[in-house]
Structure formats: C-alpha cells, structure tokens
C-alpha cells in the first residue's frame, strides 16, 4: 500500500497531481495478492488468510516486492474465500490456510497457476483463470461495485488512484450546483432503497424547499432478510458513498450530512469512520473542500436494530433521539424532515452511483437499463441457487439470466419454484415469469417490487404458504405497533396463515386474507404496513393451489408443513436396521431385522423423527 | 383560502387546516378515536380515513392530519372510504372487544361486530390510540406514561411498569381516553386517587370546611406554585362567567395553550 503524507488538497489540480503521482509509483507488473475480506469470505476465515499473506510478504527475500491487500466483497461468496493474484488477475476460490504457502511460492513468486484452486464451471467443467472467465461475472456490469474487490477500503490513496474523488473535483471546480442537479436528473437515477423515486427530482425538491439548514442523509439501515448490498459497499468502498454525498450536498445546498448505519454492521461503521477521518485530513470533507469554498461534513449515527428505521421518517425520528417510529408524510421530508428542516435521504447504493454519473455523464448512465429504470442494480442472490453472492446487473436483464447464467441455476437437481424479490415488502415470482425484465415497474406489475435488492431463490421443496408465514412473522416482529392496521392486521393475517399451515384452515380464509391485505395497503401509516401483505398476496396470486391443498385437503404439496403429509418407508431402500422403530416415540413402526419396516399410519403423529434418524434415507415424505 | 369539497359540498378553510376541520365546519361526521383538539394529531388509529381525489388516482388519507394547502376534493361517503373505516374498526373491536364506548362508536359507523378473533391484547381493552400519553406529555408536560414494547406487544405504561413518580394524579389521561380503559378510582379508606391501570396513587386534598375531596395533592401543589394573588386580576375574573374564568385560569397556568377541548 502506498501511503501518502497526510496533506490537505487545496484544489482540483492538487488532487489530479496526487493521483498522477500515485499512478506513477505503481508498477504495472507489481506483484499483489488481493484477499477478499468482505462479509462472506471473512465468515469463512479470510482475515486469517490475509494475515498469513502479510506474514509471507514480510518473510520474503528483500528484493521481492509484494503487496498483500485486504479488499471488499468480490461477490461470489459461495466460492469464498477468494484470493486474486496480480499480475494476471488470477482468480483463486475456496482458498484455505494450507494453500497460502503454495500460492505464495508457486503463483506469486513462480508465476505458475495452481489448477486446483481455479473456478470450475459446474456445467462444462472448464476452468477459469481470471474472474472475467467465470460465468458468474460475465453478465454483470459494475458501477456501484466497480472498485469492490479491487481497492483496499481502508486506503484513501487506493481510492484516489482508481479515480476516486475526481467526480467531486469536477463538480466543485467546473459545475454549478444546478448543473450537477440537472446531470443527475437527466441520468434517470432512481432510489435504490426500495421506493424507486427519481433521485434528481428529490434533490431538486429539497434544494427548492424553504428553510435552512438543509440536511443530507445516507440510509445504511439495511435490514431485509438475506440482503447485504449496502454493507458490501460501505465495507468494500466507503469513499464512494462519501463522495456521492458531498456531490449531492453541493447540489442541494447542505452543509451537514448523516450516515445512519444499522448497529449490526460494526465493520461498516469502522470503515466509514476511518474514511471520514482520512477524507477530512485531505480536505475532501469538512471546511472549504478542495479549496472551493464549499463546506460539508458527515456524522455517523448507529441504529438500534429496528427494521422500521429503514423507513425515512422513522430513521429521522431515531436520528433526533426519539423512538424510531414513522409519521405521516403528507408533508414530504424534503420539505420538513430531520428537525423539521428540508432533508434529502438516499440509500447507500444510490449515493454510490452518483460519482460515476458525474464522471461519465448522464447520457452514458441513461444508456444503460430500460426506459424508466436506468443504470444497474445490485442484488444479493441467495437461497437455493448454485452461486450465491452479490451481483450487479444492468436494469432490464431477465430474472432467468440472473438466476441461471449468473447464479448457475438451482442446485441439487431440484426444480426452480419461485424467486422472492424486494424483501419483506416484496413478493414471490413463479417460473412462468422468469423471462420478465428486472426493473422497477416490471417487478411491481408482477406483484413484487425491486426493494433494496434481496433475491431469494426457492426450489420445489419450498412451501409457499410457509414462506408467507415466515415474512408475516418477520413483519409482526418488526412492526412498531404505532398504527392499528399494521399492528392488528398483520397479527390477524398471521393468525390465519398459521392455522392454514397447521391444517386448520377454513374455506374462505384466502378471501379473508385478501380483505385484510386491501385494508393494510390502504390504511397503514407507513410503507412497512402498506406493503406487508405483498408476500401473502403474491403467493396467493401464483400459488393459490397450494393454499387450497392446505385448506381443503389438509395437504402440504411441498411436504414442509408438519402434519400435512405422511411418512412412509421405502421397502426397496430399507435395510431393516431398526433405527426408526427404536427412535419412534409412538411405537408406530414395526418390522423384523433385515426386512423392510412399516409405519402404522394410525399411530403415527408425523413427528419426523424416523425421517431424521434413518441412515439410508429410506423414510419418504408422501 | 383553499376550498375543500367534501362529498360535493365546498367549504373554505385556512391554509394548513385539516380535512377534519373542514368536515367539522360542514357538520359532516367523520369518526375519530386518537384525535383531540388539545394535542397534535398522532394519526395512528386510522379510523378517520377519507378518500382524496387526486384527479388521475384516488388515495385514502387520514382526515385528522391531512393539511389542506390547495383546493382539494374529498369523499367521506365513498364505498372505499367507508370500507376502510369499517375495516379498521373491526380490527379495533377484535383488540378491545369489551369496550362499551368502542362498541357504541362501531354501531354508529354501521359495524355490528367483528369477524376477527382477539389475537393481540397487551393491555385489556386499550386500543393504543396514544391520547393519554400525548396529553400527559404535551399538555401537562409530565410524560409520566409512554409506550413500552413494540408491535403487538406495544402497551401504554409508566416506566418499568411501576407506579410513576412523575404522575401527579390529575386524571387527564382518563378524561381523554376514548374507550374508557383508563379509570380513576377513589380509595375512601386511604383518601387517595388511583389512576388505573397504571397503579399510580396520590393523596387527595380535601375541603377544610366540609371535607369534600377537591383534587390530588400534587396537582394542588402545581397550581399553588404557579398561583399568585393579584386583586386587580381577581376583580377582572369576577366579571367573567365560570366557563370563561376557567379558560383564563388555564391560560394563566400555561395549560390550555391550544384549546380546552372536549375534556
């Protein structure tokens, strides 16, 4: 890592000079090991790998110059920990501690590729040497995540060298606030946090609103189950968020910003805090930024763990030190937000898109995507898919491309059933709509939504009624309880769905759910309540048959809801070991040793013990 | 002044007035529970929903806090608005099935009962409208009670669910409670006032002449602190009717800055 002397930059030219200096020092053939220390890889022990590489670098011969670098999330978390060796961009996956010495000796010093650690395409068996050759990356287009996995998130020099803060310098030195605003408006950028409101229009409303001071907020309270896009950006490239915010503040006319980060992301807080300090030291944040006369500073506030604080008015209440509960938005937050002052709030990913738009222009950005959804979107591809991880794709890509080409399809030879997008406010989209284009309007039309970018793939073993119950449970826990429909309505819906999954559903239950859904949508105070019924409504819309099977036949087609399917012993597979009979709490299984056992369905309580205990998977769900 | 047209009838209101204000001016009834003129509307009971005509689309809004800033067209009696209000009422009835006041209001709205079972009840017959906590904080400046818990577990409580030290036993919470859940109990034996269900008690001040109970001792102390004797003012007051005198006293004590309200 090249460390600059801490020096305040006093102009755009100053910044350009420093960047040229940093690039000049960089030897293109320099040896570098980039270890992913993003959330997924770190969970698999990559920080230890990083330490080992640093140690290996330290112990290397004096004339060997190698750099070991901890970088943000690469995306292919399924194959983590990921290590990339330069030169050559050699992409190693599932690296373990014993591999470090070998990588260092063979690849770093010897320049030889270790075949064993390369990615192998599960379908074709072809090996990929670089990330570009991996199917997972081929269909992706990275704007928000462009520097993720490349730069060291703790190094402002890395960011500057990669072109960081150039957009800020351009905006401050050669554009008026109005020109910045128009550029963002023309780009067609829409809010990436869920609502999809045009960012430029929001900025302009805030700029035009009466009152001062004006505040700018970054919403980093990411809370959807299975979603970690914003975390990856905050931890992998914190400066891009800061740069976006300073540009936005310049356009809006704000001098104070806040980043609201959920408390469960301590590393995000640490990275952002470090980035803010370094940016301040270098005159890229704080008083008189780059000698332009424009001043703007940022504070970090940590959330308290409430999902509803991702909602703008609840977030602002929490920032003010009050309970994180939403309020009516008949007067918009751009007019009266934080401390009743004009406030612009954007999501982490939205801010991260801003520098690229200023650098490359609105025409470039607007050329990506569909007519009404421009640019790219980051998704967290999780669930029953081969390549789980973080993907950034152009708007307008089909769900099929994301799930099959990038995600590698559903694993274990199972059939695809549905994909859940948009988090708890979203819905489940079935196979027949896999060719739908992914953009704000299409997903809404399908009864789901873009949301912040969670994408949970489900296979044939998923019970859709049970999924609806899962989301209702989540929302019931996370409802603040302030307004009647959300507090009472979700509880009533959950009560009905719960009894359906227990085989106690009554004819008319689906209609009751629909009635409650309409009530919640129309009368709830905030978006959490208004959209709370989406998971239920979308599963009813596409999987009505499963609800009917549960209610009318007391049968769970996916064989998930306990008690709504039978266990049987496959006489072909049964080896007659007797483990099932020994463990059955109801003595419902009988048979002779070395002959097939039989379950007495009269006595069986469908507890599933035999299924769990059978060493030969001879117990079947039917 | 902007014009609000409700169910086809126009009325002019001040900018910033609410749809409910306009409806009141026209004598059109919209059911409310968490609304009280003395406090800022929390808009949480969602009972006062009306349908706002935005030209190309219609939106349900709460009339108690929707600010009128330009000419708008509103429907109180549209099918969707009525269904929304009745739906909310059915949810409330499931929560507080034993409240007479709530059942009475429901009947007035044309709701005979609820199809829903009681699945949430953190507090018996409390609909969590928040009037009590708001009056305690905004009007009395005490904040002796507040909300505890979240979601279905939300409940009105004093800190740590113990008798609140900040409660002065004024009974304002009981007075504003629209469903009669908060009750004032007088304990003759100990000469105390109890605010139920918060279990806070305060000694009562009794008339030195006849022994009749007047007000709780802490409330009296609060008043004595603020009271000063001014003969000229007393003379002025003597010229007022009891109602106006009460209003003036309230204003002097800095209490009823907004409105005395129905309490």
Question: What distinguishing features does this structure have?
Answer:
heterodimer; A: 622 residues; alpha/beta; Glutaredoxin; Rossmann fold; Ubiquitin-like (UB roll); 5-stranded mixed β-sheet; 4-stranded mixed β-sheet; 24 helices; B: alpha+beta; 3 domains; 4-stranded antiparallel β-sheet; 8 helices; globular
General description of the model:
The complex is a heterodimer of chains A (622) and B (263). In chain A, a hairpin with a 5-residue loop joins strand 11 (376-383) and strand 12. With 622 residues, chain A is of the alpha/beta class. Helices cover 39% and strands 14% of the residues of chain A. The mean pLDDT of chain A is 93. Chain B is of the alpha+beta class. Chain B has three domains: 3-108, Ubiquitin-like (UB roll) (Roll), CATH 3.10.20.740; 131-218, no CATH class; 227-263, no CATH class. Chain B contains eight helices and eleven strands. In chain B, the strands form three sheets. In chain B, strands 2-1-5-3-4 form a five-stranded mixed β-sheet, with helices on both faces. Chain B has a four-stranded antiparallel β-sheet with strand order 8-9-10-11. The longest helix of chain B has 17 residues, at 79-95.
Q: Into how many domains do the coordinates of chain B divide?
A: 3
Average of the residue pLDDT scores of chain B: 91
Going across the biggest sheet of chain A, name each strand in turn.
Answer: 12-11-15-13-14
> Counting H and I runs of at least 4 residues, what is the number of helices of chain B?
8
Summarize the amount of helix of chain A as a percent range: 25-40%
CATH topology of the largest domain in chain A: Rossmann fold
CATH topology of the largest domain in chain B: Ubiquitin-like (UB roll)
Order of helix and strand elements from N to C terminus of chain B: EEHEEEHHHEEHEEEEHHH
Helix/strand-derived category of chain A reads: alpha/beta
Global structural class of chain B: alpha+beta
- Total separate domains of chain A: 5
Overall 3D shape of chain B: globular
Output the number of helix runs of chain A: 24
Supply the CATH architecture of the largest domain in chain B. Answer: Roll
- Give the full name of the CATH homologous superfamily of the largest domain in chain A: NADH-ubiquinone oxidoreductase 51kDa subunit
Low-confidence stretches of chain B: 256-263
Strand content of chain A: 5-15%
């Amino acid at each position: 890592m090249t460390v600059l002397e801490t020096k305040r930059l006093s102009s755009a030219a100053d910044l350009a000079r420093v960047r040229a200096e940093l690039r000049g020092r960089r030897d293109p053939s320099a040896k570098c090991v980039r270890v992913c220390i993003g959330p997924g890889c770190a969970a698999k022990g990559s920080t230890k790998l990083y330490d080992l590489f640093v140690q290996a670098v330290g112990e290397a011969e004096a004339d060997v110059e190698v750099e070991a670098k901890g970088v943000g999330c690469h995306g292919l978390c399924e194959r983590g920990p990921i290590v990339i060796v330069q030169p050559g961009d050699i992409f190693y996956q599932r690296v373990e501690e014993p591999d470090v010495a070998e990588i260092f000796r063979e690849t770093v010093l010897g320049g030889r590729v270790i075949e064993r650690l390369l990615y192998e395409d599960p379908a074709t068996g072809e090996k990929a040497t670089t990330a570009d050759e991996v199917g997972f990356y081929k269909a992706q287009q990275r704007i928000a995540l462009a520097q993720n996995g490349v730069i060291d998130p703790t190094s402002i020099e890395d960011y500057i060298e990669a072109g960081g803060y150039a957009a800020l310098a351009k905006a401050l030195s050669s554009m008026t606030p109005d020109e910045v605003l128009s550029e963002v408006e023309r780009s067609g950028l829409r809010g990436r946090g869920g609502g999809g409101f045009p960012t430029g229009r929001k900025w302009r409303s805030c700029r035009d609103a009466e009152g001062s001071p004006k505040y700018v907020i970054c919403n980093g309270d990411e809370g959807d189950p299975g979603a970690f896009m914003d975390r990856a950006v905050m931890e992998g490239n914190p400066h891009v968020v800061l740069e976006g915010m300073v540009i936005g503040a310049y356009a809006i006319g704000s001098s104070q910003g806040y980043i609201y980060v959920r408390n469960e992301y301590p590393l995000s807080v640490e990275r952002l805090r470090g980035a803010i300090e370094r940016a301040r030291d270098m005159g890229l944040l704080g008083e008189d930024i780059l000698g332009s006369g424009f001043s703007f500073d940022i504070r970090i506030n940590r959330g308290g763990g409430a999902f509803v604080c991702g909602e703008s008015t609840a977030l602002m209440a929490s920032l003010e030190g009050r309970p994180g509960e939403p309020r009516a938005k008949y007067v918009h937050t751009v007019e009266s937000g934080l401390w009743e002052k004009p406030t612009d709030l954007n999501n982490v990913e939205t801010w991260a898109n801003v520098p690229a738009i200023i650098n490359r222009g609105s025409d470039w950005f607007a050329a990506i995507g569909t007519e009404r959804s421009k640019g790219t979107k980051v998704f967290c591809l999780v669930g029953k898919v081969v390549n789980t991880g973080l993907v950034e794709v152009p708007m307008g890509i089909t769900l099929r491309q994301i799930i099959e080409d990038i995600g590698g399809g559903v694993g274990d030879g199972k059939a695809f059933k549905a994909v859940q997008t948009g988090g708890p406010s979203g819905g489940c989209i079935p196979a027949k709509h896999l060719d739908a284009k992914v953009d704000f309007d299409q997903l809404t039309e399908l009864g789901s939504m873009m949301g912040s970018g969670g994408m949970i793939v489900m296979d044939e073993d998923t019970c859709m009624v049970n999924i609806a119950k899962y989301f209702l449970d989540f929302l019931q826990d996370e409802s603040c309880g302030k307004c009647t429909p959300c507090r009472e309505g979700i509880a009533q819906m959950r009560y009905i769905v719960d009894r359906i999954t227990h085989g106690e559903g009554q004819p008319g239950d689906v209609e009751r759910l629909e009635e409650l859904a309409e009530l919640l949508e129309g009368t709830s105070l905030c978006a959490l309540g208004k959209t709370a019924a989406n998971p239920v409504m979308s599963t009813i819309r596409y999987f009505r048959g499963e609800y009917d099977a549960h209610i009318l036949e007391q049968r769970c087609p996916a064989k998930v809801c306990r008690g709504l399917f039978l266990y049987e012993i496959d006489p072909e597979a049964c080896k007659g070991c007797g483990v099932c009979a020994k463990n059955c709490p109801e003595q419902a299984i009988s048979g002779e040793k070395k002959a097939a056992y039989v379950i007495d369905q009269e006595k069986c309580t469908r507890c599933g013990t035999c299924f769990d205990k059978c060493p030969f998977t001879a117990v079947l769900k039917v | 002044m902007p014009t609000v047209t409700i169910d086809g009838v126009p009325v002019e209101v001040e900018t910033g007035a609410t749809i409910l204000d306009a409806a009141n001016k026209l004598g059109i009834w919209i059911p409310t529970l968490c609304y009280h003129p003395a406090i800022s509307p929390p808009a949480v009971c969602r009972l006062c929903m009306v349908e706002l005509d935005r030209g190309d689309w219609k939106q349900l809004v709460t009339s108690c806090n929707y600010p009128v800033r330009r000419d708008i067209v509103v429907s109180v009696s549209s099918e969707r608005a009525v269904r929304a209000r009745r739906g909310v009422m059915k949810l409330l009835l499931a929560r507080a099935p034993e409240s007479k006041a709530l059942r009475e209001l429901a009947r007035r709205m044309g709701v005979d009962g609820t199809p829903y079972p009681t699945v949430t009840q953190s507090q018996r017959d409390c609909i969590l409208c928040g009037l009590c906590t708001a009056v305690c904080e905004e009007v009395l400046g005490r904040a002796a009670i507040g909300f505890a818990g979240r979601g279905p577990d939300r409940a009105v409580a004093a800190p740590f669910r113990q008798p609140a030290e900040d409660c002065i036993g004024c009974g304002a919470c009981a007075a504003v409670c629209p469903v009669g859940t908060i009750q004032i109990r007088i304990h003759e034996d100990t000469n105390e006032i109890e605010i139920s269900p918060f279990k806070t008690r305060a000694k009562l001040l009794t008339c030195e002449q006849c022994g009749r109970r007047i007000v709780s001792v802490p409330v009296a102390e609060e008043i004595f602190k603020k009271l000063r004797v001014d003969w000229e003012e007393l003379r002025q007051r003597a010229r007022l009717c009891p109602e106006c005198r009460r209003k003036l006293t309230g204003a002097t004590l800095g209490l009823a800055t907004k409105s005395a309200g129905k309490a």
